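Running low. Invent one:
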Amino acid sequence: MHKLIGLSLLVMGLLLGQADLVAPASASDAGHGDAHAAPSAPLGFKADLAIWSLVTFVVYIVVLKKAAWGPLIQGLDTREGRMKQQLADAESARVKAEAMLADHAKKLEKVQDEVKEILAEARRDAEHTKQDIVAAANKEAEATRKRAIDDIERARDVAMKDLFDFVSSNVIGATEHVLGRALSGDDQNRLVQDALNQMGSKT
């Protein structure tokens, strides 16, 4: 705006200067016939030229306003609007970026919590698996021990039965041969038991 005003003043000054230069030239042409005429002042005020210069300046200002000032203002308004839009877009982008950053931070924190939970669950599962393995091993060992005890008891029972049969058949037969008579059932049982007790005391 200041440049426009300065340019207008410069044009006005040029117009006034041209008017002042034209006036002395006209006066000198008119005074060729009269040598004794008084010389006109080159810097004197000329009302008609001043009015003409003022009218020309006003017309110039009006034309300049319509031809240049309007587009200039429109261009400045357009540029200002574009800058405001760019600032608004930048602010919107900043807000969106901050929102995305906050969202990513929340997602990252959630993922970290999920990873911690997975690791904790894996440790719990490993501990449970360990306990299950130990319990299964203890159970298998106890079952093996019981089977071994059962096998030993069955083997002992078989051995005792075989021993009882052997003692019964041999001791009773030998005793009846020595005594020369058959023994009763009670005598046989008592004799076999005595023989087994003697064998047990010796072992």
Observations:
- The CA atoms of residues 62 and 69 lie 9 Å apart.
- The longest helix spans residues 47-179.
- Residues 155-202 form one domain.
